[in-house]
Write a structure and sequence with these properties.
Elements (H helix, E strand, L loop, with lengths): L3 H20 L4 H14 L5 H7 L2 H17 L4 H12 L4 H18 L2 H19 L4 H15 L7 H10 L3 H27 L7 H8 L10 H20 L7 H16 L3 H5 L4 H20 L1 H13 L3 H18 L2 H19 L4 H13 L9 H10 L8 H26 L2
Length: about 425
C-alpha cells in the first residue's frame, strides 16, 4: 500500500536523478538505472509495474533501426553521396553547405539525426581540409539540419519515437502533420545561414580542383551488401508507411527489417550487436521506470491538475505552454527524459479536461526536437560534432553555437506556433 512517504521518496529520487543527468557528472545511463533501482528497492514501485512501465515498442524500434543503420553504414553509401555532392557543387563552399544540409535533413528523417551526423561529419572534415576552410560554417548547418529533418518523421528523433509509441500515431501521421512545417522551417533556416555564411567563404580554383580529384566510387566498400541494405531499408520505410493499415506496431516493422538484413548480410550478428548503442537503450528503460513511479504515486496526475487549473482547460493556452516550455527546456537539458515525463502528463491533461490532445502531441514533438538547436548541449548530434572538432585545431564553443543556434531555434518555434494556431487550434 502506498503512503505519503512514497510520494516524497519518488519526488526526491526523480529530482536528484534528473539533476545528475543534467550535470553530466556521472554517466546518464548509470544514474537513470540507479534511480530506477532505488524506486524498486524502496518499494515505491513493484517489479511487475516497473516492467509494465517500460515501453518495449520504443525499445524495439530503436534496436531495429540501429541494426539496419549499423549494417548499411558498412557499405560506404553515405560517404559516396557526400563526395558526389561536393563534386557536383564543383568545390563551391556555399553549394557544398547547401547540398550537405539537404542530405543531412533527409537522412535524419529516414534514419536518425545522431547516426546521420556521425556519418557525414567526418566526410565534411575531409572536404573542408582539402579546401583549406574552417569546418564550423559547414558543420553547424549540418547539426541544425539534422535536428530539423529528424522532427519530420516518427523515426527521425527519439522524442518522436516515444510519442508515437505512447499515442499510436504512425509514420504517416508524423510525416503529414509535421512534414509541411519542417520543410518551411528548413527553407527559412537555409536562407538565414546563407546570410550568415554566404559571403564569408571563398576558395581559389586550385583548391576546388582538389575536390574534383576525389573518386566517390572508392567510398563504396561492398556493392552486394549495398544492394541488400538499400532494398531492406526501402522496404522497411514502406512498411512504416503501411503499418497502421495492417495493424502492426512500428517496432515490429523495424525488427522484421533488421532480422532480414542480418540474415542477408551474412555478417556475424555479434559484430553488429556489439556496435549498438546499448547505453541509450538502458537509459530509456531506466527513465520509463522512473516516470512509471511518478505515475504510480500520483505525482503526474497532481501536476496535470495544476496545468489544467492554470490554463482552465483551454486548448490554445495549453498548446502554447507545451511547445514553448518544451523548446526552452530541450535547449538546455536532455529532451529524452523531458519527453518521457511529458507523455503521461499530457495524457492526464486530456483525461481531466476532455480537450483534443492531438495538437498537444505535435506541440511536444516540435518543441522537444527543434529545441535541441538552442544550445550546444541541446541534442546528442550537437555534442557529437563538437567532440569531433576537438580532435582538430578548431573548437565549437557553447557561446559560438548559441549565437547562431538559439535565434534559429526561436524563429523555428515561432513558425511552429503559427502553424499550430492556423491548422490545429
Amino acid at each position: 500500500m502506498l503512503t505519503n512517504s512514497h510520494v516524497y521518496i519518488a519526488a526526491i529520487v526523480f529530482i536528484l536523478t534528473y539533476a545528475f543527468i543534467i550535470s553530466e557528472k556521472i554517466n546518464r545511463t548509470a544514474v537513470a538505472l540507479l534511480g530506477a533501482a532505488i524506486m524498486l528497492g524502496l518499494k515505491v514501485i513493484s517489479q511487475e509495474y516497473a516492467f509494465e512501465s517500460i515501453d518495449f515498442n520504443t525499445i524495439g524500434l530503436l534496436i531495429g533501426m540501429m541494426i539496419i543503420v549499423t549494417i548499411t553504414k558498412r557499405t560506404g553509401v553515405f560517404q559516396y553521396i557526400a563526395i558526389k555532392s561536393a563534386k557536383l557543387a564543383k568545390g563551391d563552399p556555399w553549394k557544398i553547405i547547401l547540398s550537405f544540409s539537404i542530405i543531412t535533413a533527409i537522412s535524419s528523417a529516414l534514419l536518425d539525426n545522431v547516426t546521420t551526423v556521425l556519418l557525414i561529419a567526418p566526410v565534411t572534415l575531409v572536404i573542408t581540409d582539402t579546401l583549406n576552410l574552417n569546418p564550423i560554417p559547414f558543420l553547424l548547418p549540418e547539426i541544425l539540419s539534422a535536428n530539423i529533418g529528424g522532427t519530420a518523421t516518427l523515426i527521425g528523433d527519439p522524442p518522436n519515437i516515444m510519442i508515437g509509441s505512447a499515442t499510436g500515431l504512425g509514420f504517416l501521421d508524423f510525416l503529414f502533420n509535421l512534414g509541411p512545417v519542417v520543410v518551411i522551417i528548413f527553407i527559412v533556416v537555409i536562407f538565414i545561414l546563407k546570410l550568415i555564411y554566404g559571403k564569408e567563404l571563398s576558395v581559389d580554383e586550385e583548391h576546388k580542383k582538389h575536390i574534383m580529384d576525389f573518386d566517390e566510387y572508392k567510398a563504396i566498400k561492398d556493392y552486394a551488401l549495398l544492394r541488400k541494405s538499400l532494398i531492406v531499408l526501402g522496404l522497411t520505410i514502406i512498411g512504416f508507411t503501411l503499418h497502421q493499415i495492417f495493424e502492426f506496431e512500428s517496432a515490429t516493422v523495424a525488427l522484421i527489417g533488421a532480422s532480414v538484413l542480418l540474415v542477408l548480410s551474412k555478417i556475424n550478428p555479434e559484430e553488429i550487436l556489439i556496435e549498438l548503442e546499448w547505453t541509450t537503450i538502458f537509459f530509456f528503460a531506466g527513465l520509463f521506470i522512473l516516470v512509471g513511479a511518478l505515475e504510480e504515486v500520483g505525482i503526474i496526475e497532481a501536476i496535470a491538475e495544476k496545468v489544467v487549473f492554470l490554463t482552465k482547460g483551454n486548448l490554445f493556452l495549453t498548446t502554447l505552454m507545451i511547445i514553448w516550455v518544451s523548446a526552452i527546456a530541450s535547449a538546455f537539458i536532455d529532451n529524452i527524459p523531458f519527453v518521457a515525463t511529458m507523455i503521461p502528463l499530457i495524457k492526464s491533461i486530456g483525461a481531466m479536461s476532455n480537450i483534443n490532445v492531438i495538437p498537444l502531441w505535435w506541440a511536444l514533438a516540435l518543441g522537444a526536437c527543434l529545441g535541441g538547436n538552442g544550445s550546444l548541449v541541446g541534442a546528442s548530434a550537437n555534442v557529437i560534432v563538437a567532440g569531433m572538432l576537438e580532435k582538430t585545431k578548431y573548437r565549437l564553443t557553447f557561446i559560438d553555437f548559441i549565437k547562431v543556434g538559439f535565434p534559429i531555434m526561436i524563429i523555428s518555434i515561432l513558425i511552429s506556433t503559427a502553424y499550430l494556431i492556423v491548422f490545429y487550434i
